[in-house]
Amino acid sequence: xxxxxxxxxxxxxxxxxxxxxxxxxxxxxxxxxxxxxxxxxxxxxxxxxxxxxxxxxxxxxxxxxxxxxxxxxxxxxxxxxxxxxxxxxxxxxxxxxxxxxxxxxxxxxxxxxxxxxxxxxxxxxxxxxxxxxxxxxxxxxxxxxxxxxxxxxxxxxxxxxxxxxxxxxxxxxxxxxxxxxxxxxxxxxxxxxxxxxxxxxxxxxxxxxxxxxxxxxxxxxxxxxxxxxxxxxxxxxxxxxxxxxxxxxxxxxxxxxxxxxxxxxxxxxxxxxxxxxxxxxxxxxxxxxxxxxxxxxxxxxxxxxxxxxxxxxxxxxxxxxxxxxxxxxxxxxxxxxxxxxxxxxxxxxxxxxxxxxxxxxxxxxxxxxxxxxxxxxxxxxxxxxxxxxxxxxxx
Length: 395
Prior knowledge:
Radius of gyration: 20 Å
CATH topology: Growth Hormone, Chain: A
Number of domains: 1
Largest sheet: none
CATH superfamily: MFS general substrate transporter like domains
Low-confidence stretches: none
Number of helices: 15
Distance between the termini: 35 Å
Helix content: over 70%
CATH class: Mainly Alpha
Order of helices and strands: HHHHHHHHHHHHHHH
Structural class: mainly alpha
């Protein structure tokens, strides 16, 4: 099999799964029809992110044992079904279940497959290829937000959910067909492994990984570093509307920033190292969050800063994945990265909760951006303390 076909499959899968980041486009229509408030609708996104992260653990275990296709097919089915069922929403509890849990679990099973597959096929350019694959996830909202807004006007939000459900299922199934692990012991032709300071000398099983300090430093940095991005993503459309800028344009800038950040930061991490790249991205995020709020009245500056925040967020989704492969090896990567990915799930609670609570209490998002910046500083300290396991550690 041409190894680049797995990249095509991963991008197709993640473009569909990235529809989760377009959740905010449904917030206004749902609040208008049912009278729900911002905190209530924010929980839909938080439940989906938490379910996404924790279902990733089970999916990673299955992927390690049975290969990627069974997980990918389950993910495709759950995402498509969840969107279609969401069209019948009449209550918050129902929406929490069908979008929060079902779509969230579909993301966990679908997203569990491209990263390990790409890491195994491309040990020679792991950062770039994983970045390309997960860029699809970041770019998915750039497609879904304007399409959904157009469909709202033509067919209403219920039919929009149904149309998206069918299309997303088909895109995920293309990915399912193309994702396949390489033969055991595969190495690209002409490639000779060279020692790297951040690369483990062996595959470290999960039960050993959780006994290493490196895992916990990475977990804290991943959780607090992605909180800023998830906070912005969950509230982007209402935040943009509140300051009089075009939400669709803001979403486009965000998606482009997220997608390009995953690709270019992945490539950058191949050159200057994973940890150096993460430190830079988290530091920039700490500066960009308050700057986004301060510059909210200037449309062009607003769009550019949204792109920067999404860039830093997307970079972390890419580089933390390849850091896991380098630190702990690829044999157990499905489960190893699944456990690390729970940090993203916790961030999915913290980020939207901060934004919704601050807005509900004050009618403004101001303090939320400063809190997120402070959490990014803590993340920067944590990632600066992370060190790859040595042979003595991993025994």
